[in-house]
Design brief:
Layout: H1 2-15, H2 31-43, H3 51-72
The protein binds zinc ion.
Residues 18, 20-21, 23, 29-30, 32-33 line the site of zinc ion (ZN).
């Protein structure tokens, strides 16, 4: 599952065309391409999520755990 997720991420990155030079970002022809490529390689599968989404997911997780603890106690 983890590998498939990374594979999907990689495919979208390979198809991405640069707004600056109109070449595929994966070729790294201009500084914008190279910056985007670097960013995508470092961010990983959670790079597309913004912090608010992560906080919301965390809140849901905490609520679920609290509910579970309440039911079992
Ligand atoms: Zn470019």
């Amino acid at each position: 599952m983890w590998n498939r997720c990374k594979e999907g991420e990689r495919m979208t990155y390979d198809r991405l065309v640069c707004a600056n030079c109109a070449a595929p970002v994966s070729e790294g022809r201009c500084p914008v391409c190279r910056a985007n490529r670097e960013r995508m390689q470092h961010e990983g599968p959670f790079g597309g999520l913004n912090p608010m989404t992560l906080i919301a997911l965390l809140a849901v997780l905490v609520a679920a755990v609290a509910l579970l603890a309440h039911q079992t106690a």
